[in-house]
C-alpha cells in the first residue's frame, strides 16, 4: 500500500492506484510506519508525499465506508483515532514535508495534503473536503484547515464540499506552488531539496515555533521566541553556518 524511496529527500508513495489511493486502514498504518522509519533515519532531511497513478488520494476507502454504520462505537472510534494519529503525525512531523498533489485530492486525501508543511499541486488537479456530500464530516482536517485558511474560508470549503482548482487553492493559502501538467512530483522534490539544504536544527525549531505560536498570547509568544533565539546560538549548526559564511563556502550541516 505504501512505497518509500529513501535519500536526502525521501518520497512516500500512496500505492493503490487502481482504487485511487484511498485511506484504507492498511494505507493509514503503512503511512505511519513509513513516517516513523524516516524520522529515525538521520540521512533523511525532508519527505515528499504523493500518489501513484492519476490520483493523489480519493479519501475514504469505499469498501470500508460501506461498513462504518454497522461497526459499532468502539471500532469506529479506534479507526477515527488512527486517522487522527496520521494527520497529527504529519502536521507535527519534525522534518519538513511536501505534498505533491499529482491528481484529485478529495476528502481525507485533501486533509492529507493540508497536513503537510508545503504543497505543490498539478495545474489540472482538484482538491476538496467533500465529506458533507455523503453525510460525513471533515472533523479531523477542520482542526488544521482553519489554521491554514482562516474561519470564513474553512466554512466555505467544509460546508459546500466543493472542489477547487489549483489557482483557487493557491489563492486560499492551501497550495504553495502550481506545477505544469505531470510535473507535481518533480517540482515538489526540487522544493524539498531546497529546504533540505538548510540547517536541520533551524528547520525543526522553526516548525516547533510555528506549531506553538497560534495558540499563545503576544507576550508568551515573544518569550518563547526569545528562548528559541537564545538556545539556537549554542548549536553546532549555527557554528558551522557562521564559519562557512566567513570562509565563503557552502555550510556542511
Automatic annotation (TrEMBL):
One GO term in the molecular function aspect is: catalytic activity
Pfam families according to UniProt: ECH_1
Which InterPro entries does the protein's record reference?
Answer: ClpP/crotonase-like_dom_sf (IPR029045), Enoyl-CoA_hyd/isom_CS (IPR018376), Enoyl-CoA_hydra/iso (IPR001753), Enoyl-CoA_hydra_C (IPR014748), Enoyl-CoA_Hydratase/Isomerase (IPR051683)
Source domain of life is Bacteria
What residue intervals traverse the membrane? none
Gene3D superfamilies documented for this protein: 2-enoyl-CoA Hydratase, Chain A, domain 1, Lyase 2-enoyl-coa Hydratase, Chain A, domain 2
Q: Which family does it belong to?
A: Belongs to the enoyl-CoA hydratase/isomerase family.
Q: What is this protein called?
A: Short chain enoyl-CoA hydratase /Enoyl-CoA hydratase
